[in-house]
Design a protein that fits this description.
The radius of gyration is 19 Å and the shape is elongated. The longest helix is centred in the first third of the chain and has 34 residues. It is mainly α and about 130 residues long. About 85% of the residues lie in helices and about 0% in strands.
């Protein structure tokens, strides 16, 4: 890549890293609020807090790449895969967690009477391992 292309990539990546820092901050606040507040202990709110946790892990990946882009150091594919394993795991787990939230909301609407009698712990035992 020529010098102009690198400047464009670095400026765009700076915006992405700034958005990642904002996302990490806000998702951490959401997670802490879900843990601290007693009224947010429903199944849906627990899954939303778990989704926020996985989003924080995913957004850390943008910050891992930041120093490499602004230096002359290049890494090979194996090291990049090893470094980005946890952020990629956070991405997949977050997507599965959003899917679990959708299933939870669909069940609460379609079988509302049975859903209210369903033990919260039983439902979480099914949803949480599917995210991991």
């Amino acid at each position: 890549m020529d010098q102009l292309s690198w400047r464009i990539v670095r400026s765009v990546y700076s915006v992405l890293a700034s958005v990642a820092v904002l996302g990490i901050t806000l998702n951490t606040l959401l997670l802490l609020t879900s843990i601290k507040e007693k009224s947010l202990r429903s199944t849906t709110n627990t899954l939303i807090g778990l989704c926020a946790f996985f989003d924080v892990i995913h957004q850390m990946g943008y910050l891992v790449q930041f120093p490499i882009l602004f230096s002359d150091y290049f890494i090979d594919s194996f090291i990049c895969t090893a470094v980005m394993f946890l952020p990629e795991l956070g991405l997949v787990s977050g997507a599965l967690c959003v899917f679990s939230i959708g299933i939870d909301r669909m069940l609460s609407i379609t079988i509302a009477v049975t859903y209210k009698r369903l033990p919260k712990l039983y439902f979480l035992k099914v949803c949480v391992p599917s995210c991991l």
